[in-house]
Amino acid sequence: MTGKIAVGGITKIDGLVLIRILGAHVEHGLAGRVLSALGQNGINLTCVSSFLDREGRNNLGFAIGAADLDQTLGILQSMQDEMQAGSIECQRRCSAISIYGPHFSERPAIAGAVFQSTGDAGIEIHMIATSFSTVSFLTSEEQAPLAVQKLQERFLVP
Fold first, then answer.
1. Which residues contact 3 (CB under 8 A, 6 or more apart)?
2. Same domain, 35 and 57
3. I want to staple 136 with a disulfide (CB 3.0 to 4.6 A). Which of 22, 32, 98, 122 is the partner?
4. Which pLDDT value is given to residue 2?
5. What is the pLDDT of residue 1?
6. What is the pTM of this model?
7. 3-class secondary structure for the chain?
């Protein structure tokens, strides 16, 4: 017995840009409007996270391929009046790392183990997105290899 938590696997995607739309005043549906506009223009998203702040403003983060940055910014610029965003920020040279397996929603230790491992290694996490079977996060391309190494040390990967 290794003491490691068994998972289905770990993936890493490099060459991403994190886009953050912060403080948008859209009443409802910021994510739907923005994500639909991007999808209709053939832009694929890797990670998506959204929340309302204390003032009830919308905040949306997502990752795109670096080659789609100019087109994405053009689309967001065309929506600026509708969104009334406080700011739109870009963070280049990001990597998405995902750890996946069945029944993650029934195993509360997974996310804690992921972020304890990365935190202990000093890895900066830019965004987190989860699902029933996956824990994903964005970090810098420079820190991504170390993040994968630390996850492989902590988890039993096939």
1. none
2. yes
3. 98
4. 60
5. 44
6. 0.90
7. CCCCEECCEEEEEEEEEEEEEEEECCCCCHHHHHHHHHHHCCCCEEEEEEEECCCCCEEEEEEEEHHHHHHHHHHHHHCHHHHCCCEEEEEEEEEEEEEECCCHHHCCHHHHHHHHHHHHCCCCCCEEEECCCEEEEEEECCCHHHHHHHHHHHEECC
